[in-house]
Design goal:
Layout: E1 6-9, H1 12-32, H2 47-62, E2 83-88, E3 95-98, E4 106-113, E5 118-126, H3 127-130, E6 136-137, E7 146-149, H4 157-166
Parallel strand pairs: 2-4
Antiparallel strand pairs: 1-5, 3-7, 4-5, 6-7
Helix pairs in contact: 1-2
C-alpha cells in the first residue's frame, strides 16, 4: 500500500533563518577547517542548505522546534531526541544509511527542490530495520558502501508522529 508524502514550503522568515544557519555552518567549517566528506559534498555546494531545509520540514511535521544549529555535534539528533534526517535532490531517491550511522531511532527520508524551495517528506524507518542485507550496496555500484532503502519500503510519517507522542 502506498504511503502518504508530505510537501512543505517555507515562510520568508524560515528561509532567512535557514540561510543564516547555513552561513553559520560555513563560517564554522571555514574557521575550524572541520569540513569532511561527511559534512561537505564536493559535487553539491548546497548540501548543507538541503539538510537544513529537510530537518526544518521534519521538525514542523512532528510539531517540535528546530534548533538551527551552526556547530556540529555528533551526539545531537537532527530533530528532537531520536530522529535523524536524510535527503536527496532526486525525486525517486533512496534513504541511505552508512556504517558510521550509529544513533538508534528513526531515520526520515526527504526529497528537496532547492529552486522552489520545498521539501517532500517521504517516510521513515528505524535504523535497525534499515540495516538488512537486502538493502546493502557495495562499490562500484555506489560511491561508498551503504544501505539503500527504497521509498516503497518506508513507513508513513503519521506512524512516527504517533509513536513519538506515545513515548
Amino acid at each position: 500500500m502506498p504511503i502518504s508524502k508530505y510537501l512543505f514550503t517555507f515562510t520568508d522568515d524560515e528561509l532567512i533563518a535557514s540561510r543564516n544557519c547555513l552561513d553559520g555552518r560555513n563560517e564554522f567549517h571555514s574557521k575550524y577547517k572541520s569540513s569532511t566528506e561527511r559534512t561537505v559534498c564536493p559535487t553539491d555546494p548546497n548540501k548543507d542548505w538541503q539538510s537544513i531545509l529537510s530537518e526544518l520540514a521534519v521538525a514542523k511535521f512532528l510539531g517540535v522546534e528546530y534548533n538551527y544549529a551552526t556547530v556540529p555535534d555528533a551526539k545531537r539528533y537532527d530533530v528532537g531526541d531520536c530522529v535523524e534526517v536524510r535527503s536527496s535532490l532526486h525525486e525517486r531517491g533512496h534513504l541511505i544509511v552508512y556504517e558510521y550511522d550509529n544513533k538508534p531511532g528513526a531515520y526520515v527520508f526527504t526529497t528537496v527542490d532547492l529552486n522552489e524551495p520545498s521539501v517532500t517528506i517521504c517516510g521513515w524507518r528505524d535504523l535497525v530495520d534499515c540495516r538488512l542485507d537486502k538493502y546493502w550496496r557495495t562499490t562500484p555500484k555506489v560511491r561508498k558502501e551503504s544501505w539503500w532503502i527504497p521509498q516503497s519500503d518506508l513507513h508513513d510519517m503519521k506512524s512516527l508522529r504517533e509513536r513519538l507522542v506515545l513515548a
